[in-house]
Design brief:
By secondary structure, the protein is an alpha+beta fold. The protein is built from five helices and seven strands. Helix content is 35%, strand content 34%. Helix 1 packs across helix 3.
């Protein structure tokens, strides 16, 4: 499986949005407040993917976007892999790239937020050496202002 990690381009936004929407549904439905579910429409993911191209790195497998990460400062904001590529090493490669981007940005520690019920993601981060610092109140973007979402804060020294 030839895997390429590269910065996203505007042409990747639709593929990123599709992976993001389906992955978000898998990991978040039943694990986040209904107010957040209501505003996370397919269109919202398309808009956000287009708006965050500069912060996005994609993984390509045989020329197709298989997953992505978004990094802002010391935060790994998003990590999603298409269902077709889960378990193939794509997520690990993307997370390693996210860690490199955080480190190259001058930060010695990275962090990310995970919904408590997203057990698959929590196990993955722990296997990759991330440490759960406990619950905190994450402020997720909403069209009418932040939406409070209880999350676990995971950190990793770089």
């Amino acid at each position: 499986m030839p895997l390429t990690i590269r910065p996203a381009t505007p042409a990747d936004a639709d593929a990123v949005a599709k992976i993001w929407y389906h992955g978000w549904q898998d990991g978040h439905l039943g694990n986040v407040p209904d107010a957040l579910v209501r505003v996370r429409t397919r269109e919202s993911f398309r808009e956000r993917a287009s708006d965050h191209v500069c912060d996005t790195t994609v993984a390509e497998v045989t020329g197709e976007v298989a997953g992505f990460v978004m990094v802002a400062g010391e935060e790994v904001e998003q990590v999603f892999v298409s269902s077709d590529h889960r378990g193939s090493g794509v997520a690990g490669a993307l997370l390693a790239e996210a860690e490199r981007l955080v480190r190259d940005g001058g930060h010695s520690c990275a962090w990310l937020a995970v919904a408590p019920g997203n057990a698959r993601a929590r196990r993955f981060y722990e296997r990759c050496g991330w440490v759960d610092e406990g619950l905190f109140d994450n402020q997720a973007f909403g069209p009418d202002g932040p939406i409070s979402v209880p999350c676990h804060r995971y950190v990793k020294d770089l």
